[in-house]
Structure formats: C-alpha cells, structure tokens
Amino acid sequence: MIWLFQFELKKFWTSIIVKLFIALFFLAVLAYYAYVHTQTIRVQDVMIEINESKMRTENQLSMIEDQESEEALFLLSMIDKDDAVLKAYEEERWYDVLAYEVELYQEEFNALIAQKQYYTVSFPTLFTMETRNAYFEYMQQQHITPVLPVHLYAWKTQYDELFPINDSGDDPFFRQFVEKQSTLSSSTSVYFLYQLSKVVFSPFGVLFFLLLFSDIVTKEGLYTKGSIQLLRTQPLQHWKIPTVKMLVMMGVSLCLLMATTLLGVLLGIVFDRVGDWDYPVLIYGEAYAYTFIPMWHYLLKSILLFGALLLFSYSLLFMFSYMTKQMITAIGLTVATFAIGIMLSQQIISTSIGPYLPFHYASIDSIMTMSYAIHAEDMRYSFRTGGVVLLVASCCMLISIGIIQKVNRQS
C-alpha cells in the first residue's frame, strides 16, 4: 500500500495545475502579510496621537487667564497623565499602559456594575467592559505585549448591538468607527497566523482545497477505459485505491497548512517579531460567562477542526465523483451542496437538530470562540460537537462511496 501512496503522490505533484494553485496560494499569503503589515499600528503611531492630544490640551490651557482655576488645574493633570503615558509607551512598560487604560474608564465600569447592566446592548456593554479589563489583566500577568491600539473602541464583543451617540439611537458612522478600530492587525508571527486562520479556515479555504484536488478521482477515467484500470489489474483490493487517494489529500493538505504556518512565522521574524504564543483569545460562555485561552491553543484546535471540515468536504467530492464520473460536475455539485447547506443551516439554527448538521461548522473562528453559539443561543455549537458531527458525516459518506463502488462494479 506504501507504493500506491507514493504513486498517487507523485502523480498529484507532477500536475502543472497543482503547482500553479499552490504557487498562487503562497503568493496570496505573502500579499495578505503585506496588507497586514501596512495596517499594523506601531508604538510611534500611538505616541503621535497622544502628542497631538497633549498639544490640544496645552492650547486650551494657554487660553485660560487664571492658571490656578479648577479648569486649568484639571488640564494640567491631563497633560501630566499624557506625559506619563508617553513615557510608558516609549519605554514599552505595557503593564503601566494597560493599567492606565483600565483606570481611565473605571468609574463607568463601576457604574455599570452597580446598575447590573448585563442585559443592555449599547456599546460598551457591561460584558464588554468586564472582558476588556480581564483581557488586560491576563496580559499583565503573562507579561504579554498588546496588539495596538488598546483604547476603549478597540474592544468589541458579540453583545454590542447598538452604537448610540449621546446615549440614544444607533449611529451607523459610530458603528463603522468601532468596527474598524476593533479589527486589530499585527505583523508579528503569532497574531498574523491568527488573522490568516480566519481567512483560510473558512468556506473560501475549503473551496481552494476542493479545487486543488478536484480531479484526483476522475482524471484516470473512473469506471471507464481510463488509466485507472491499470491499477485494477494489480493484486490489490478495490477499497485501497480511494483510501490512498483520501490519505494523499489529507496528507498534502496538512503539509500545506504546516508550510503556511512556517511561512507566517518566518515573515514575522524577518519583518517584525514572533509575538506571544500565549496571547489571549476570548471564548464566550453561557449566561455572560467567558474565559480566555492562549493563542497556540486556539490555533491548534482550529487546525484540528478545519481538518475535520476538509475530510467532510473531500468525502462529498469523492461521493459526487463516483456518482457522476466527471470532474466539473462533481466539483460543481460539491460546491453547490456546501452553499445550499450553509444557507439552509441558517434557517434551522435554533432547532433541536441544528447542532448536528455539519454545514454549521464551515466558519471555524465563530465556532472556536463560541460566538456562533451565542448568536444561535445554543451552547451545543462547540469545537467538540463540530468535530464529532463532521467525522460522523464523513464516515457515512465514505460508507456510501463503498456502496456506490460495489454497484458500479456489478453494473
């Protein structure tokens, strides 16, 4: 069976289309890193903003005649705080920077706690303020360098649904501002891999891998007079051929993901720094509970769940390939099934059988962070459920492929 694996792998790699697809994939990764690098907020950028704010305060102070007045003293205290924060940024004393941000909104946070404002949906909600403080505390304890900026508008959660100005309404411009500010970017290795995983571990990533392996079953003329019949003259069992093809697909996919990870790490080392593998990722819980997991844990589990999603996708492709015996028809049916499955899943997201449909798990990030579960108001949408559902669905389709094979051989 080893020789058959080597044969399939060599046949796959000799394809010019495959090499072109892989080259385009890595070029896209490089282009995305270039984009992320330009979007990354640096310490100098933040210091410039603080200096501009300080200058405006100094101008206000200069216009006050009585420098001993309450207003003047307040402005002086603001200038002193700006100087202290600037020095903390300059010396990269992140503990002090984060402590200042917590202190800045402590009164608002205490007021929300006193009013028990968990059930409000206006930004920033009590949940948002509480998790923001816990997020900063986690980084302080672990001595982690934060991704900038760290101001109030750089942290948004699922519970922020309205973005009012002057405590009323829902201002679309304010919403857009917060969403832009809270979409953090960093060209460090670790955070770039986190951002890249959101793009790759999605329906778009599945589509790429499906196109990459689109003709692995049909190219030799399945159940016709194609070259695959040469394998059938060899002393091997029929089930070994599709099994080896599936192993090649999963093996190559894993190697591509590992190579992408290595490329992301190298890009960060060359153009920025590695970053912190313990960087916190917010995980939602039931009844406003929450926790944080380190970035390496998030990325590892994401790869495992995406692997299960790929197995499910490849099983669909195999089934349609054996049914239609044509590459274009098989890939078209697979993509259409995926698209229709995702759309229909949204219609039954809140039903009792919803969590047991595999198409719900096409977006890995929302499953990993449990934001999908919060949206559906059903905590069964989780990493564990998704893994089991995808594996069971894959096994069912692989069994169906075996039945289709048997029918085709007898016909």
Describe this structure as you would to a colleague.
With 411 residues, this protein is mainly alpha-helical. The protein is built from 17 helices and two strands. The chain has helices at 2-13, 16-39, 43-62, 70-90, 94-104, 106-115, 126-142, 172-181, 189-200, 203-212, 228-232, 240-271, 295-324, 327-347, 364-368, 371-376, 383-410; strands spanning 280-284, 290-294. It has a two-stranded antiparallel sheet. α9 (189-200) runs antiparallel to α12 (240-271), α13 crosses α14 and α13 (295-324) packs parallel to α17 (383-410). The protein is elongated, with a radius of gyration of 27 Å. 29% of the residues are buried. The model has no long low-confidence stretch (mean pLDDT 89).
How does the overall form come out from the CA principal axes?
elongated
Helix percent reads 55-70%
Low-confidence stretches: none
Classify the beta-strand content into a percent band.
under 5%
Topology as a string of helices (H) and strands (E)? HHHHHHHHHHHHEEHHHHH
Distance between the termini: 27 Å
Number of helices: 17
Q: What structural class results from the helix and strand content?
A: mainly alpha
The overall pLDDT average reads: 89
Number of strands: 2
The Rg value, from CA coordinates, equals 27 Å
Order the strands across the largest sheet as they lie in space: 1-2
Biggest sheet architecture: 2 strands, antiparallel
